[in-house]
Amino acid sequence: MKIIKGLAAAVFITLLSCRPQMPLIRSIYPQTGSMGEVVTIKGAFFGKERDESYLTIAGAQPTGMSYLEWQDDEIMFRTPEFGEAGLVFVYVKGKKSNGVLFTNAATLPRPVRGDETAAGPRIIAVTPPSGTAGALVSIRGTGFGNSRLNGGVFFAWNARTTASAPLEARVQEFVEVSEVEFGYELWSDREIRVRVPDGASGGNIEIRAARGNSPPMPFELSGRPGTKTFRDKRSYTLNYSVNVKIGEAQAPNTLYLWIPRPASSAAQRNIELLRSGMEPFVDNYRGISLYKLDDLAANSDIPISLSWKIEVYRVETTVWPQSVKQESNSPINTAYTHSSAQFPTDDSRIVNQTAAILGRERNPYVKAQKIYEWMTGGNFVWESRSGGDIFSALETKRIDSCLAALLYCTLLRAAGIPCQPVAGVLVSRNRETMNHYWAEFWIDGFGWVPVDPAMGAGAVAAPFGVHENQPHFYFGNIDSQRIAFSRGFSNLSPMDPRGRTAAHDRFYSLQNIREEAIGGIESYSSLWGDITITGIYAQ
Q1: Is the pLDDT of residue 243 over 60?
Q2: Which of 227, 35, 224 is nearest to 130 (CA)?
Q3: Three-class SS state of 302
Q4: Domains of the chain
Q5: pLDDT digits over 90-143, tens only?
Q6: b (16+ CB within 10 A) / e for 96-114
């Protein structure tokens, strides 16, 4: 009898230990937030996958798309619309966790700072409430201001962080509507019309204007023909300089210098000027700062040095070709497929080569892939620096990364696919830099897709070409071991029709003018220094 009782007790204990545990919330971060912001719950017994599990905030349940991560000890989600405050509960297989208080930041009292704050921007409606990259969105409200000035529209942006990253690293970030994508169509005090920028994610929209920042308004990304992930952040601090030595000169005279800035994009963010040796005449024109040096004395030396801090992310994309649809009359398509001196798409040699590569292919994404495979498939001898232009590259089959980026863009544009070259530097792990060029093409509803033909062909040796499976990786993906200084080709106009202009070939940005001498400058020399990396922080 005692044996039977002992067995019964053992069975009872075993069954008890097999029962599913109650989900447990240990912490929530942040404890206050607005609709669309990312919230992290830490605890236990949530289950390895969400399946039919869910959570609620003050009775409101997030949509399925709002869940960013669901692990046994951690849940990440976007806050749904809810009241002033309420308890958060996690439901797993019919079992309910303990409750933790979460407060709606939009309902918290705000300090009054006068009439200007009271008249700050406020969003009333976003039409449509969802869309994809490049889609036109109307934002109606009040207090936007009659002109944009230094204001902007910002969409939610997210990067994939490591499990060891601090919670602060997971706070919601934003990406601004881009001029490169013709993002701003209308700005008035009560209505703004913008195009959804590349890299935007589902979450909030904010208006940042002279009168302040608007409360956030939710916006969903839907119908995208693929996925785009930003990860492996690298923070760089870098220096570069221009040193000018004047020979013979007499007043009056002027020397203009067009010095590029690090280019802003969804993958290259939070650009901060740390130090400047001289104030620019024009701070930022198409990503270039213009410096004006007046009445320079003979035999004088003028140094200009710049120091920047910048964050660069690795980009990984997956595109479903069958879901791709292109709009032939979009402003991006018109601007990035037209023929020009740099991209002679209507030249018969380009037209014939494009037709030979593509045949009857009609899908724009597959077209871009076929041209990439043709360029990286052994049809060229790759050199560190080639002479000539894209036509000599086609004839001699000798090419470098600069000509490759220009040729790739020209062939894609001839095929009706928006494309632009990107110029910058590669950065090795021991902080060496090398001028380099790649490209990106646009897919409607998805955004920019990065391509690096030179890296894909294995033409860049160590310590810069370190990625495995380079031919596959560098179509649609790009590493974070690079810094871009120009996206597209900047055709600048001289400041004076009598000015004497100069350009530098194979530089770390693509622009037609770097220097312009006016008046009594008889002779001078300029030394444009290489990019020097002073710090790297990899996350």
Answers
A1: yes
A2: 224
A3: strand
A4: 19-107 (2.60.40.10), 115-223 (2.60.40.10), 231-313+508-538 (2.60.40), 319-487 (3.10.620.30)
A5: 999 889 999 888 887 766 555 444 444 446 899 999 999 999 999 999 999 999
A6: ebeebebbbbeeeeeeeee
